[in-house]
């Protein structure tokens, strides 16, 4: 994945436990910002809350391809979330406060509110699945 254009806080990445319909925009997001920070967020009804601090990715450049990998491990009362960029773990967290149920997985790109420029993200050679 690479992000050739957009504002510094534009985001792109992966999501899991997603649910998108007229009543919901829910899921866990594993995203990178164009300024080189990675984090995991929980989105409920369209409102996102960061579950981890935005960590700087070493040697990251938005115009260069990076490899993303995320794991969402559902347990009875919690979800374990881990995010890797270029095979380096950049974030991990346990959500045990009303964890989301299993749902769709996918790719995402978004601009933050107030930005006029769109966020462009290119995904190449991707595989999505369940273990």
Give a structural overview.
The protein is mainly beta. The protein has no helices and eleven strands. It starts with a strand and ends in a 9-residue tail after the last strand.
Q: How much β-strand is present in the residues? A: over 45%
Total of DSSP H or I helical runs spanning 4+ residues:
0
- Average pLDDT level: 89
Work out the number of β strands: 11
Quick tags:
3-stranded antiparallel β-sheet; 6-stranded antiparallel β-sheet; single chain; 0% helix; mainly beta; 131 residues; globular
Question: Briefly, what is this?
Answer:
This protein is an all-beta fold.
Topology:
Blueprint: E1 2-5, E2 11-21, E3 24-33, E4 37-44, E5 47-50, E6 55-56, E7 68-74, E8 79-85, E9 88-95, E10 104-110, E11 120-122
Antiparallel strand pairs: 1-11, 2-3, 2-10, 3-4, 4-5, 4-6, 7-8, 8-9
């Amino acid at each position: 994945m690479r992000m050739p254009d957009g504002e510094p806080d534009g985001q792109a990445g992966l999501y899991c436990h997603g649910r998108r319909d007229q009543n919901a925009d829910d899921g866990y997001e594993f995203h990178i910002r164009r300024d080189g920070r990675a984090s995991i967020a929980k989105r409920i009804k369209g409102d996102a809350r960061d579950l981890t601090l935005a960590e700087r990715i070493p040697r990251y450049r938005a115009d260069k391809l990076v490899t993303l990998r995320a794991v969402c491990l559902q347990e009875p009362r919690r979800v374990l979330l881990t995010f890797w960029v270029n095979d380096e773990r950049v974030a991990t967290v346990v959500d045990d406060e009303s964890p989301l149920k299993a749902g769709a997985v996918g790719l995402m790109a978004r601009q933050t509110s107030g930005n006029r420029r769109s966020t462009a993200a290119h995904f190449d050679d991707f595989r999505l699945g369940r273990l």
